[in-house]
Design brief:
- This protein has 341 residues and is of the alpha/beta class.
- The protein has helices at 8-19, 30-35, 37-40, 61-73, 88-100, 114-120, 158-175, 177-183, 193-210, 225-234, 245-262, 268-282, 289-299, 329-340, and strands at residues 3-5, 24-29, 48-52, 81-86, 106-111, 125-130, 133-140, 145-148, 311-315, 321-326.
Length: 341
């Protein structure tokens, strides 16, 4: 897999020429069709445009059937190429559909959100949600290329940009103490996105190269994600209260930093740093008493679990992380109570 951070006007035509596909398809959603596709269309030869509804709520098998059906109608053979133009949902689902169509055709990720540029597009995790469970069905398959153009970040609402920034924070906390100290000095609007994206991509590429199928080290990328995914899943069926991925992961990082402190892995000063910064950027998700047990129940479906035991990636210092730490329901309740304040 190659990751290129450059204007698409430079990287995309060259990639398509090298790939020389028999057919070309571009998958977009309602948002990227309006804001991003017009910037990409002039760079493309003849192609099939596949448009799907936007949002996590459509990341399921029925939408996959739409994509597979469009590829079939266009008579795609195994030498075709799919370009996924969008955020994490498009990348996850479009990649999954390409990886399973006729047992696999080539695809490239063209991530348009900060979240997808620094995290979702890199690493080859593909999948869809199933029966309300996030990324429950999927495969590991590296894309033929990841082509990142940070100019797309200018099309994002501020809330979407802030959501993606949670993964940047995570990468710093698990792998780069100096960068953690640096980013806390900046407001979101003052960051150099080209530098920030390149830094996060380098961390994820390094981890994925060592452990492509998440047997060991790659699990550190899940810091904040066990309770964070559980919170995100809990709010999925609430259209007016739905959280963006990064908002839920920010909550998860506070909770899991607290667990790291409780287990003696970090000191109180680091916990306070994390808590203060994340609450300043993201605020606090309102959790009621009746939310506690359903959130904990969702952790029982986490893909890192083993033999029915919830296992987490927890930090053991600034820029350091370990994994496969068993955490009881009692500890998770304490973390949720701590987060609530």
């Amino acid at each position: 897999m190659s990751v290129t951070i450059a204007p698409l006007s430079d990287s995309l035509p060259q990639f398509i020429e090298q790939q020389n596909p028999s057919s070309l398809a571009v998958i977009v959603d309602n948002h990227t069709a309006k804001h991003c596709y017009p910037l990409v269309k002039p760079l493309l030869p003849k192609h099939t445009l596949i448009r799907i509804p936007a949002g996590e709520g459509h990341k399921h098998l029925a939408t996959c059937e739409t994509i597979w059906g469009a590829l079939t109608k266009a008579s795609f053979d195994r030498h075709g190429l799919v370009l996924n133009l969008g955020g994490g949902v498009i990348g996850d689902m479009g990649g999954f559909c390409a990886a399973t169509y006729k047992r696999g055709i080539a695809f490239a990720q063209l991530p348009t959100t900060l979240l997808s540029q620094v995290d979702a597009s890199v690493g080859g995790k593909l999948g869809i949600d199933f029966q309300g469970l996030k990324n429950h069905i999927g495969v590991f398959q590296l894309p033929n290329a990841v082509l990142i153009d940070t100019a797309f970040l200018g099309t994002l609402p501020e809330r979407e940009l802030r959501s993606g920034f949670a993964e940047v924070i995570k990468h710093c906390l698990i792998a780069d103490a100096d960068e953690w100290a640096r980013i806390r000095r900046y407001d979101l609007e003052d960051l150099d996105w080209s530098r920030t994206v390149a830094h996060s991509v380098a961390i994820k590429e390094r981890v994925v190269a060592e452990d492509p199928t998440e047997k060991g080290l790659r699990k550190i990328l899940n810091f904040g994600h066990t309770l964070g995914h559980a919170v995100e899943t809990h709010f999925l069926d609430r259209p007016k209260g739905r959280l963006l991925h990064g908002e839920a992961i920010a909550a998860g990082m506070v909770m899991e930093a607290y667990l790291s402190f409780q287990l003696g892995m970090i000191d109180e000063s680091l916990l306070e740093q994390i808590e203060e910064y994340l609450f300043a950027v993201y605020g606090r998700v309102t959790l009621n008493n009746e939310d506690m047990e359903p959130i904990i129940a969702h952790t029982l479906q986490d893909k890192k679990n083993r033999a029915g035991q919830v296992r987490m990636a927890l930090i053991n210092g600034p820029g350091q992380c370990t994994y496969d730490i068993p955490v009881s329901k009692l500890f998770m309740r304490q973390a949720l109570d701590y987060y609530r304040g």
